[in-house]
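Quick log. Single chain, no ligands specified.
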Amino acid sequence: MYTLLKQEGTARRGEFKTVHGTVQMPAFMNVATCAAIKGGLSAYDLQNINTQVMLSNTYHLHLRPGDETVKKLGGLHKMTGWNGVILTDSGGFQVFSLAKLNNITEEGVVFNSHIDGKRIFMGPEESMRIQSNLGSTIAMAFDECVENPAPYDYAKASVKRTTNWLNRCKAEMDRLNSLDGTINPHQMLFGINQGATYRDLRIDHMKEIAALDLDGYAIGGLAVGEPAETMYEIIEAVEPFAPKDKPRYLMGVGTPVNILEAVYRGVDLFDCVMPSRNARHGHLFTWSGIINIMNAKYELDENPIDSECDCPVCQHHTRAYLRHLFKAKEMLGMRLAVMHNLYFYNTLMQKIRDNLDAGSYEVFYQKYRNILDKRI
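-> predicted structure:
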């Protein structure tokens, strides 16, 4: 259940109550694709860096170790040791981006596994059953992800297919939640707004799925190569038609400035692999901009990554040491870098919430929108 606590312009400060805890929003979900953060962080590390929500991937966990295996192990919470909120994506994006597609029909998608080439079928019911086996707090509806730019007629047909699939997801989740032996009988369902970059398709689709009274609503199919301004325009177009009493989730976004801009336009929830991926290559976020720890100027630098950061890494280690770890190809370097970047993101969300609480988000937004993506 979502409660809107305060609003400044379109920006929203809310909280979302679930069976696995209450999420203070706006929030960023830390991405644990295969039930682990790439870079060597465990569920227990996530608790120490103020993570609220962990996101795991339906497609990858279905292939390995298998969702039936995860269910036998008690679900994702028991398997990983994470006791907070978990969102699982539907597998749709990975099916369309990673796998070799064979056929898309109204029933679902036949594809070849990117691991071993095995032929697999996934449709709305299969995605819901996999996510039920994983036992996540929030399941995402199975949708079709089209490439941008997409022809208008194809995008329109794809939206219709996604809506049909959403109705089937809802029916199947209701059935699964009623069964004995379901790991999480309180599992929630978020629908996904699609329509490529066409305002009319996006608006019509949001109106249509809003009528289904789902637990939350996502905006999908963006941040896939289109200009950032186009993404912001789509958010502005659909926001008035998204239910006010449900969370809004912008999928796969993004940079700190993307988040500032999307919060400004009424989005509550985010996820992205970028902060951990960048960290593994030595690109670290600070309150003054982005640094590349591999640069020679940090060889003798005894300062923390960011003097304004109180993460475990900045409290105990220097830039010089971190640079050494990367140059020596020590695994610890990646682990510390990922820990810092995710802490930075979680802290960014806390500062956003604090400023919304204080009625000063406009000032915070104007100050940092021109700083946080700057390369130092």
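The longest strand covers residues 11-18.
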